[in-house]
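Technical appendix A lists one of the benchmark inputs used to test multi-chain prediction within the project. The record comprises two sequence entries:
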Amino acid sequence: MTAVHENPSRVLTPQEQEWVDKFMDETTLFLGPDPEIMRDHGIAPRSDHEELAIAAGVDRLEVERIRKRIAGALDEGYEMCEAQGAAPGAKWGDLTTAIYTGSGDVSYLSCHGVIAFSAILHHPIRYIMKYWKDEPTVGINPGDGFIHNDARFGNVHNTDQSMIMPVMRDGQIIAWVAATIHEGENGACEPGGMPSGSETPFDDGLRMSPFKIVEGGELRRDLLTFLQHSVRDPKLQLADLKVKITAVRKIMERVDAVIDEVGVDTFVAALRTTVEDVEVEVRRRISELPDGTYRFDQFMDSTLKENILIKFACKITVKGDEMIVDLRGTGPEILNRAINSPLCSVKSMFMQAILAFWWPDLPRCTSAMSCIEIISDEGTWADASYDAPMGQSLQASFRGFSAFQALYSRMSFSTPHKYSNVVANWFNQINTFLWGGVTQHGDMVGNLCADLNGMPGGAKPFRDGEDAVSPLFCAMADTAEQEVMEEEVPFMQLVSKRLVRDNMGFGKFNGGMGYEMIVAAEGTPQWGFMTVTSGAKFSSIYGMYGGYGCGTYPLAMVKGTNVYEHIRRDPSKFDLSIEKVMNERPFEDGRYSTYHMGLQFDIAKDGELYMISQGAGGGYGDPLERLAESVVRDAELGRITQKVAEEIFGVRYDPTNFRLDAEGTEAARQAAREARLRRGKPFAEFCEEFVTPEPPESLHYYGSWGSETEDITATVFTIDGPERVSAPLAELPIVMIPDRREVRIAELEARVLELEATHGIEVKRLA
Amino acid sequence: MRVPMTEYLVIDLDSERWVCRVCAHDLGSAHDNYKPGTLVYDRDPREIHQSIIDPERYEYTFSPDPTYCRILEYYCPGCGTQIEVEYLPPGHPPTVDLLIDVPALRAQWEERGVDAEEVHNYGPGDDAQQQTAALKAIGHVR
């Protein structure tokens, strides 16, 4: 017999609620990422101190003077990190320094470096303030410094490590100063900190929630040792911690001088006023855009282990001074693949687009995006849950950048006052080699080549995009000197920065071109390479207004042979390009293969070739409108082939002397336009033929199919194999993809059985 | 007044129609997306992004896979200008990329009190101004 006790619910009294809250506070088993903090990209309400300081009156000229001095201090700190940092990322400028209000809002960021951090570093500070400030075992005191890297607590991605220090007066926190560097190596399942192979969050490496590693000015050696023990490159871990601490202290020295001069209240008011002014200005700028809805959806072709198609949906609605970004329709998170990103990281790349390509004149602070509403359901690959691996979260977050970049050119096209140029999409993949192993000096290392910074730029309406100019996330990042790196690591770039023909987004103005890289290791007991990008089957960026996007990019390899030996025997073989090597196969004993760009850490024997190419920027406008002289010049320089000149651009010339055939071109272009009118179908008729109710059966597709549905389509893997489902995100089963090697083995076993049956071979197998 | 909305599209506020910026062809109601007024072609992406390594021997060749990716080319039915290009999975519904609130657009320009085409520009910077002016002089930029 079961006794039934009626327990009618009732509202707790304030006293009871206080007891419950106290009990919960004291007995919380794990203080993980706080959704209240992590879902919020708004600025904090004015603190009492800020309210009083601003009420006392704000002298705008004084604020501007303070801001300039802070900017100088931050730039000085930035340069210290760049000059002294041990991480390759630091040397190339992949870092930032910033000052924050007492509540953690970024008030100003260094003029160089990665702008995306202005949307992200308020999260860990809010966490520190909420959980550690009054925690008796932690606390916040002058001289303390906090570190974190895990993007679940607010970061661009897990390779970035911060050093966050409070500015205190009379026991009160009045500001924060931080330096954050892309450190690379972080003890993940693969070297370099951005594992394409992570299948659980625990493969992603260091999981540093914000914690105090500097106490009263002293670096905690016990915690440092733990961190060094957890990564492949303990010297790097120590060196850059010291660099960041030194840089932050230098900035704080300058800040202290400003505070001593102007007083605490004026300083506090200046930080807060900057944040508030930017929010007001952002609303004004939104109101300049035409009201309407603008959509830009993207498709990614890889989990970095196998080819799929997954959607990144983005619709922006503008109404008056309000902007709403809606990411619904984006594909679900894949719970055993590295491509997922927390929403905060995607937002950080929204901010990168806003402050680098929308309104680059604004102070770089949290409020540049705080008034923009973002709608997203947790559980997508662009808004991943706590349990999803995120080793290569840039796959989702960089598409957030591309969406914002493309959409702003559409939203702002008509506006009479622009703050930046109309531009087609920048390339958005980190096509570079990550590497790791034992160097010629006997050190264990793991990191990456600077070629990720060689992303080509998008075309503008009045000029071609720049070749291999800079990464989308850091305008002043450097592609570095490969020869310098070769003194430290046991591989050479046998080909470095050689442009690949026809590799541009074609248009009236072409997107910038990318270059190829060919690497081979030698003289190391253990070495390996990996690549971590997508876009080998589906172009990763698209063009603008009739211009085309980039092509697709393979990883090409020659294994089983030592090309150094070949070249030593016959130096004439040192004439390499991906095209030449793969098509002519000059190394007779080599095994030639291509692969998508998600190569998990692959052991490289001496002299085995790994070959990749940087991508291309998006083209702008109809290629038939490109100046014919520009097309011939491109052909003469070897940037494009005659086939492309004729077929894409409709240009005719004499290939022996590159003399333009003006009449032939005019006729060819007229014919090309007429051919378009003949083959183009009226939109409704076209849709009737082209549009299908669901994706092709052979595609493993993830995301909404079209934008008129709330359902997400996904291929899930059941006991009976792959099965397509379509349901609202919340009702979808967990998506996990089977091990590709097991899939391959199953295919081969089936083939063996088929062949045995065909040839009447009887084989006895034990189960 | 005609408001340039993309490189090849204006909205005529008087007629409330999408109009081709090149040939003034009518592309439909400005209250809807412009695509229904266009001609569309489903392009095999390998024709645009041509293979650099031998497609007979390799799976990944610098060319998109046509079973993953199609390129939809949108043409003006009047002049054949390629006004937009869209990369989509085969069979995926074309995106409704622009839906403009026409009354709000009109109000915005009435308040500005200037002609949208006359003041149109591609953004700040001496290089942008100089290059745009030079290209306008030879009729290469609208």
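Residues 126-137 of chain B form the longest helix (12 residues). The mean pLDDT of chain B is 97. Comparable benchmark entries are summarised in Table A2.
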